[in-house]
Structures are given as structure tokens and as C-alpha cells.
Amino acid sequence: MSKDTLLNPANDIMLEAETLKNMLVSYATGGSGDDSEYKLLRKKLMADPSTKKLLPKCVLTCRDLSEFWGFIKSEFAHYAERREFLREEFDPLLTELEQALFAPAVDDISQTLSEVDSEHVNFAWRKALERKNSDPEGAITAARTLVETVCKHILDENGTEHNDGQDLPKLYRLAAEQLNLAPSQHTEQVFKQILGGCHAIVEGLGSVRNRLSDAHGRSKKSVRPAQRHAELAVNLAGSMATFLVQTQKVRKARDSSEPDYIFDSARLKAELSAIQVKVRGMEKKKVGMVADADMAGPLSALDQELDLLQAETEALRTKLRITELGFTYFEEHSFNVAVEACGMVGRKEKLSEATIKIPAAVVEKFKQARKKNVFGEFYIQSCFELPDDGARPESVLFYLFGSASDTSDIFLIEQWST
Prior knowledge:
Strand order of the largest sheet: 1-2-6-5-4-3
Shape: elongated
Number of helices: 17
Number of domains: 4
Number of strands: 6
CATH topology of the largest domain: Four Helix Bundle (Hemerythrin (Met), subunit A)
Strand content: 5-15%
């Protein structure tokens, strides 16, 4: 099913398919039908190859309602037979559309998991997605493996011992405790219930895998999983994996000892990812507003916000490109505020106009930075406590910054003190 078709409100394919089905049921059972509407719906549904292949054969072959009436009248004598026939004929198309419309945000899950530095995690998620429609048993196995792998990844990052023999509920309990997600770590009843529900989901994934997946041998009475079982298991596993990964990311950011004005590539990537998720959500919201004339004002405001986010995205990409060359981004306003909060004075001057003696090692770093061809200007910022008697400060902190060629953003090249 093409994504554009599903997200186009002017051509709401789900509503059109339901409308066509109901029209034919009515017409086949003594009701009325609008021939021009039938032709329009048929044309729209046949325009997209992904819906055309699922249309009932009678719709493909009957160009108008009179042809349909000739077909249905000769095939089935009773109304009940006609209703059942049309229900079965439309079921594949409507089922496909429902799954596409109401499935969880797979793109967002994939985006979040792609940022995890673990090929095992990404492999498990890809395997689950690839198998959920064609191999329900394998998909359920991969779903459990995904959560298990994410738990192990989090435990490894936090230096928590575990072994391969531990089952999924045990691994999840250990990871949850590391992330402050264990129900026992909270006093509010609502959080205890929600986090207890998360634990129940993980235990359920283990149980459904043991009962329905391909991980164990089968008896003659074993129940084989259907596609809907696999869909449920994969969606639950993806949601839980995303929740754990995002919680770990927030925890690492909170525990970081870096000041809030310092941005390395990991922090910039996290910010870029957050904006991209927000943009996708706003674009989906916009799709639902386009066809409504009453939403012209809100739509214009939404477009302006999207433009701002797009500009912010491009700025972050520029910063990320430079930080990946080895230069840390400093948010200048916050840096200056921090300097003042420490009771210090900050003075900034162009390197070309500086009169201070620069250490040889700093000069070498400057030469290396200049060769990268990403900085349009270089500055030295000195920070010091101003003595009450007006004497020279006892010690001074110096920062050599490079300013990006197309922005005023500053990046640290080297720092030293006297």
C-alpha cells in the first residue's frame, strides 16, 4: 500500500472502499445506487496498483451498476448470499487498509532503534518486520529477541552483569531497575500500574513466544499463530524497545557531567532526531487539514512552524557536520551566562587582533583547524575574575573558538589557562 495514498485526505481510500462496498450491498439487495458515484469510486480505487490488485473481480469487470446488477442477479438468488459474497470479496482490501491505517508508527520505531549502537538490536527489528506478514512464527521469535537484545544492550552500557542463560523477564527486571522503571521504585499508584503493565507485556511476549513461535517443538495439538498474533507481538516489542531506548537516552543526558552549553555529536544527533519526529507528526497532522477549507488559518500557521523547524534542522546538520570533525559546539549565549554566573568577566576578540602570547600547542591546533575549511573566523575568549583593587587577574582561562563560515555558531578548538 503506497504511503501517499493512505495519507491523502482528499482521496481517503479507506472511506471510499467502505462506501463502494455499502453501495453494492444496497444495490444488490433491492436498494438504490448512484451510477456516477460508483464509476468515480471505481476509477479512484483502480488508479492505485496497490488497491487495484485487491479489488473484487466483479468491480474490475463491471463498469457501471447495470453491469454489476446483471452479474449479481445471475450468480446469487438470495439477498443473504449476495451480502456474504460481497463481504468476502471486499475483506482482503479492507483488512489491508485497516492494518496500514492503524498500525503503530513503524517509521518512528525504526528511527529510534537505528540510533542504537548495536547491530544486534537493528537486526532483530528488521527481522521482525520482514517476517510478520509471511512468517508469523518467526516474527514472534524475533519480537522477543528484540526486547531481549535491547535489555542486554542497556545492561552492558550501564555495566550491569548478566548472563545468556537469564530469561527475558529477569533481563527486563534488571534493565528496568537500572532505568528507574521498576514499579517498586515509585510510590505514585498510577506509575506503579503503568510500569507494572510494561512488565506484564514483556512477560506476555515471552509466553506467546513459548506457546506460538518456532522456538520450540510442536505437538499435534499445538496452536499455530496467525498473522494478527505476529502483528501484535511485533508492535508490542517495537513499542517496548523504543520506550527502553528513549529512557536510557534521557538518563544518559541527565547524568552527563557536561555543562548545558556544550554539545558533542551525540547530543546534537539526539536533538536532530527529536525535531525530525516532531516534523513527521506535524506533517501527518497537516495532511488531515489540507482538504478542510475552514482550516486555512491553522494550516498557514502550521506551515510557518514547519519552515522554522526545517531551518533548525539544517542548522543542526551543519553543527553536527563540524562536531564530527572533532570540534565541540558551544551555545554562545548560555556559555556567556555561565561565565557571568561564576562571577567572571568574559572578553572576546578576533584572533587576528589578539595581543596575547599563544602557546605553541594551541597554534598547532589552530593550523589544523584552519585546514578543515569550515571556519570563517577565529576568536579568543578570555574569562577571569576581576580583582576588587583593579589589579591584573591572577589567572585567566582562554578559549580558542572557530566560527562557522555560514553562521555565527562557535566551536571549541582549544583551551588553556595562565
